[in-house]
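As the next step, I selected for study a record pairing a protein sequence with its backbone structure tokens, which the following lines show:
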Amino acid sequence: MKELKVKFLMGPPDCNDPNIPHYSDEFLKSLSAELGINVVLGEMDEVAAQPLPVYFIASGGAENGFKANYQSTREPYILLTTPGYNSLAASMEIMGFLAEHNLKGEILHGDFETLAKELKIKLAVAEAKEALKHQHLGCFGEPGGLIASDVDFVKLKELTGAKSTLFELDELIAEYHKGGYPENQWTEQLKKKGFRPEETEKALNVYGALKRLIDKYQLTAVTVRCFDLLAAIHTTGCLALAILNAEGIPAACEGDQKALLSMVIMRVLTGKSGFMANPSTMDPKAAEIIFAHCTIPLDMPDEYFLTTHFESGIGVAVATDIEPQVMTIFKCNGDLSRHYAGRADLLETMHLGTLCRSQMKLRLEDGTEYFAKRPISNHHIICKGDYKEVIDAFFEQY
């Protein structure tokens, strides 16, 4: 079980109830049981070293203790409170102090279920921000045919710590011609599909080339200007990206840098693979959109089969079947100043001949107005499950 250390702060013992330490200990035990993580007292340096520092305001009079310690951590300041001993009142005073110093803070107060839910979200956000610092996004070719899908690498580094590098697509093509790819559960599974063995081998060699370049440059995510591969090597990147995403390496199509960044954020926040797709048809009255693309993470479908790439009719693409369930649709811009996170119900997966091969019809909880009036470019990222709250909480910090 993971452990969350909190900084215990209470007022002077000579004017506070001697039962406060015991009460606080029992409070943290109950919270730990609800949270599924041991919440224990820690020294200031231990608390500050965590992705999410938390101040446990145990009583009135704790304000000066906070003032003496707050510079050890950064905003937002999380104040965990109890329903007794003027804990909440002291936290209100601390919030006033923070406001006077133009610093953000938040009081966590309520029953154990409420506290656990809030802490889980905040832990996920803090751990995602920490993980972003160690990301290295590799872009093989600039966005192809896309006019609003690039990212300012310098600005992104300043905001998140994530590094981004632009490579010439020719480097990937040269690596492809060396041939070879690692054998694993995904490559074995794909070959057993029996779809055009020569074409499957070519597509898997794109995967092998990307894997070697990922290892060479220590990349954690990639995007590929994949339409240019059609003329250069007469195959597509669809299978390569499908495998990489299933392996936990976010991989985007068409050199789309905003989509890649969105996939990375979704992965570090939720641990889930993201389906990068075009909103292809929209029914505003029914609040429905069909999303489609020729690649999808291989760990997402219940069943999948192989076919050709939609636009070109060559190479190998992936078509899927997924049972109806709750999904999250997500996209952000390059400087993290805008994002969209929406809940949706997957109504069905489809196999229309007029769209890219993997197709999902989704009914959106908040309708289609965002897509009609203020979309963040074309591609959006879809994952299984409801992660709207944690995504929204993440962007509150930017």
